[in-house]
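Marked as duplicate of an earlier ticket. Keeping the data here for the record.
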Amino acid sequence: MKANEQLLVIDNVEVEYPAKGFGKKPFRALKGVSIDIHPGECVGLVGESGSGKTTLGRAVLGLAPVTGGKVLYKGRDIAHLGRKERRALADEIQVVFQDPYTSLNPSLTIEQTLSEPLRVKKMSGPDASKRIRSLLDQVGLPSNAADRLPREFSGGQRQRIAIARALALEPELIVCDEPVSALDLSTQARVLDLFKDIQEATGVAYLFVSHDLAVVRHLSHRVAVMYHGEIVEFGDGGKVTSDPEHPYTQRLLLAAPVPDPVRQEQRRADRRRLLQAQEDLAMQAGAV
């Protein structure tokens, strides 16, 4: 595909979950969400817990019930694919989950974990071994890591293994669901640099889900901000993460910590004023 073409188009997508209890309305997790991703692009999707950002990633992966709208991958609606069709699409769309401790099977060696998708594609043993060595090198792990179990690695190393597994079939899109939130700050920075290096080397596109504006600023070309199941701001990554227009994005920016105590206290004060102003406007609107 050409770089200016759309690889993924999320068009007015809605997701509803049945409510618990007789007569209650379904819970609308997504309310007409629309974003797009181009080949080789990273789109950051940011929002607080419960905003619906993870649900959107799951909708792309076929793990959430799309009740309205379309999820177009290369122009094909993949929102309601059957299990067989979805498995076939795994060559092109992969995922890196949040928790590196639970995303890997503890009883399998790293070679066994990485060889699973290769065996499904009927790759020969020698070719699979060569591909595994290449993947380990790509994510900065030694080749002897293949013979070890997940418990022998740190959290950052396990996430590198999860990234290698996602890269095994050379996908065109990876959904990254909070992939660094369980890591300490120094490890986060190294893994984010790895994501960036991989994208530059392979041209893979990312839908990068996070609650942290500072994280998505690091590698996102464009950023979408989600609030209560809706996109409230979507645009250039640098602009959205440093000079946002929507009050909710401004609140997220002011909530991010900075190393300077004086600036940090000023940001807290600015955030309190912004929250108070929004509450006052809401009360005025309710009184009308």
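See parent ticket for discussion. The longest helix spans residues 261-287.
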